[in-house]
Amino acid sequence: MSTQPMTLNGKMLLEAELKELTQVERPKVILAIEEARSHGDLSENADYDAAKERQGFIESRIADLKGKLAEAQVVDPSRLKSETVIFGAHVKLLDCESEDELTYQIVGEDESDVRNGKLSVFSPLARSIIGKKKGDSVEFQSPKGEKEYEILNLYFE
């Protein structure tokens, strides 16, 4: 079994989604299927087809979440200390071309959200800065071409 790193917050988000699906969405879709069945002929019943499709999606997502939680290697960034960029670190970067400053936290794949400063540990940028120190410059291939960043600071919280 392979492990997937994630922060404590990321694990809590997955657990909350799993709880919502199992305790709220699953019972709702079961009721929708029962109601659609009561309308008669299932071969031409669009409500039944839609409810069964929704049920399939919910059950698939539940299985996916259970698998991810079983493989989770939870890391609490507030307990980490390092001079180099590692999983869980908040990293302040300087875009050497535009002079923009960006701050990202290196997080697990399921909790990544670039617009909110959460960068997947498997992303090209994260892979290029992991192991680097404050003051180091890194180059990596982005979808828009070659980019260069300088690591201004890193911290854990």
Annotated CATH homologous superfamily of the largest domain: Transcription elongation factor, GreA/GreB, C-terminal domain
Helix content: 25-40%
The pLDDT mean sits at 91
Ranges where pLDDT stays below 50 over 5 or more residues in a row are: none
Which structural category do the helix and sheet elements fall into?
A: alpha/beta
Instruction: Examine the secondary-structure arrangement and name the CATH architecture of the largest domain.
Output: Roll
Q: State the end-to-end distance.
A: 29 Å
Task: Write the H/E string, N to C.
Answer: EHHEEEEHEE
Number of continuous helical runs: 3
Computed CA radius of gyration, to the nearest angstrom: 22 Å
Strand order of the largest sheet: 5-4-3-7-6
Main pleated-sheet profile? 5 strands, mixed
Task: Please write the CATH class name of the largest domain.
Answer: Alpha Beta
* Overall number of strands: 7
Query: Total domains, how many?
Result: 2
Shape from CA axes? elongated
The percentage of residues in β strands lies in 25-35%
What's the CATH topology label of the largest domain? Chitinase A, domain 3
Describe the structure.
The strands form two sheets. This protein has a five-stranded mixed beta sheet. The chain folds into two domains: 4-75, Orthogonal Bundle (Helix Hairpins), CATH 1.10.287.180; 77-155, Transcription elongation factor, GreA/GreB, C-terminal domain (Chitinase A, domain 3, Roll), CATH 3.10.50.30. It is 39% helix and 26% strand. The protein is elongated and about 70 Å long. The two termini are 29 Å apart. The model has no long low-confidence stretch (mean pLDDT 91). The protein has three helices and seven strands. Helix 1 packs antiparallel against helix 2.
